[in-house]
Specification:
Largest sheet: none
Length: 171
């Protein structure tokens, strides 16, 4: 939906439409992210009842919390990558993705050969994903300088309905 709507508003040079869409989707993704945090906490608390991991249960719970919170943070931050794709800045997106994949892979290799735990693997993944999202956000802000994050001013319930209908029909 991000690519479709940003392409539509960008082609018409509709700065207000771009702001309404980006603020509406970021608000929606933030609400979904809050729900995901609650689900992650519940799953972490229930983990010992589903899996017998012995003394590793605490590490598994912490890793689950780190990854779940990382996913929740990354969900609203995934929108800028869609903006870059909609504006057909594929080289920018791919450069950011490849560089972060190399950094992540190197960091994981170093951590695993040093004998670090599952928690380090989760931390490295979350930190590099967050860094990648921040780079996408900075690139998107340069390409779409009129973007203004202000949910109260730009949130649009009608557009939210359109996004929902498009998402249902396209999936």
């Amino acid at each position: 939906a991000v690519v479709r709507f940003i392409s539509k508003f960008g082609a018409g040079r509709d700065a207000d439409g771009i702001n309404r869409f980006l603020n509406t989707t970021s608000a929606l993704f933030s609400v979904i992210a809050l729900v995901a945090v609650v689900v992650t906490v519940v799953l972490a608390l229930l983990l010992p009842y589903f899996f017998d991991l012995g003394t590793n249960i605490r590490d598994a719970q912490i890793a689950l919390l780190i990854c779940g919170c990382g996913f929740s943070i990354g969900l609203p931050l995934s929108i800028p990558a869609g903006v870059l794709r909609a504006m057909q800045r594929f080289t920018v997106v791919n450069s950011i993705n490849v560089s972060h994949m190399l950094i992540r892979g190197t960091a994981i290799y170093i951590a695993m050969t040093a004998g670090n735990s599952l928690i380090w693997l989760a931390v490295i993944t979350v930190v590099t994903n967050f860094s990648q999202s921040v780079c996408n956000l900075q690139a998107a802000r340069r390409i779409v300088p009129e973007f203004e994050l202000n949910w109260f001013r730009h949130f649009d319930y009608q557009l939210l309905s359109e996004i929902g209908q498009y998402s249902l029909h396209s999936s």
